[in-house]
C-alpha cells in the first residue's frame, strides 16, 4: 500500500534543492510526510504528480529504515524493556531459590 501524504513538501526547500533531481516525468520530487498506520510521520520523496491520475509514481523514503528516528526510539525502548525483563527474571529465580531453601530447611528440621 502506498503512503498517503498529510502535508506537501516545498519545492523550494533547501533539502529538496540539489539533493534530488528530476525523475521519470521530469518534475522535481517533493518531500512529504506519510500518514498511514504502517509509517506514521515518516518522510518520503515523491513526484509532485504522485498518485494523481496517470501521473508519475516516483517514490523513495527520505531516510533508510534503520535510520528512521521513530524506529530507532522503538528499538531502544525494546532493548530497555528486555533488560528490565532479564532483571525481573533473575530476581524471581533468586526469590524462588530462597523459598525452596527455606522450605527444605523447615521440612528437614521437622523430621
Offer a quick outline of the entry.
It holds the Pfam family Zn_ribbon_GRF. The protein is built from one helix and four strands.
What does this protein structure show overall?
There is one protein chain. With 111 residues, this protein is of the alpha+beta class. Helix content is 38%, strand content 14%. The protein folds into two domains: 1-62, no CATH class; 65-111. It has a four-stranded antiparallel β-sheet with strand order 1-2-3-4, with no helix packed on it. The longest helix has 42 residues, at 69-110.
Structural class: alpha+beta
Strand order of the largest sheet: 1-2-3-4
Distance between the amino and carboxyl termini: 71 Å
Number of domains: 2
Mean pLDDT: 76
- How many helical stretches? 1
Major sheet description: 4 strands, antiparallel
Total strand segments: 4
Helix content: 25-40%
Helix-strand blueprint:
Blueprint: E1 5-7, E2 30-34, E3 43-46, E4 59-61, H1 69-110
Antiparallel strand pairs: 1-2, 2-3, 3-4
